[in-house]
Amino acid sequence: MTSTLPELYIAVDVEADGPIPGPYSMISLGMAVAGRPDLTFYTELRPISDEFVPAALAVSGLDRDRLLREAPTAQEAMSAAAAWVDGLRRVGRPVFLAAPAVWDGMFVHWYFLRFVGHSPFGATGSGVDLRSYWMGLTGSEWARTRQGTIKQELGLHDMPHTHHAGEDAAELAQVFDAVLRRRRPVEEA
């Protein structure tokens, strides 16, 4: 039986200091609900390993030494993130959303399983990928599905992509909300 509560598309953005979780660390996590700018979550995380790729770390602008001293542990941060997602269940059914879902989803799912024991997004950690959704909605080729292109086609201006996980999650939530408003209602047969 499906709940009568609406789906809540939770835009997720991750900043990391390398290409994969485990050997490298997720260093910040942002989440924002599409259509609900009042529902956001942000945390930084203490790195879990000594390994990092300087160029990857530089993208976020975060200070690794500060994170090692001051950021919550991965267990603390991911427990707080899971509690936030679970708290949304009183108003809707959480659905993971990312751009790209493969990158952000890989880190988020791994971190939830490793540090919380389960993911609030389900056993598979699956969710919606903005680019794939846009392809299906518009018939666009993959090359025409970059977030900047989608924003341009939707007339969304002055929405910078800052590589701050909280700001970028809020940006993605706004973009997906505009995408949802653009789609046509499914006609009943």
Describe the structure.
The longest helix is centred in the C-terminal third of the chain and has 18 residues, at 165-182. Helices cover 41% and strands 19% of the residues. A five-stranded mixed sheet has the order 3-2-1-4-5, sandwiched between helices. The mean pLDDT is 94. It contains seven helices and five strands, in the order E-E-E-H-H-H-E-H-E-H-H-H. The protein is of the alpha/beta class. Keywords: Exonuclease, Hydrolase, Nuclease. This is Exonuclease.
Taking the alpha carbons of the first and last residues, their distance comes to 23 Å
| CA-based gyration radius | 17 Å
Described by strand count, sense and barrel closure, the largest sheet is: 5 strands, mixed
Which structural class matches the secondary elements? alpha/beta
Number of helices: 7
Q: What is the count of β-strands?
A: 5
Walk across the major sheet and give the strand order: 3-2-1-4-5
State mean pLDDT (0 to 100 scale): 94
**In one word, what is the shape?**
globular
Give the fraction of residues assigned to helices.
40-55%
What series of H and E elements makes up the topology? Answer: EEEHHHEHEHHH
| Residues in β-strands, percent | 15-25%
The unreliable regions are: none
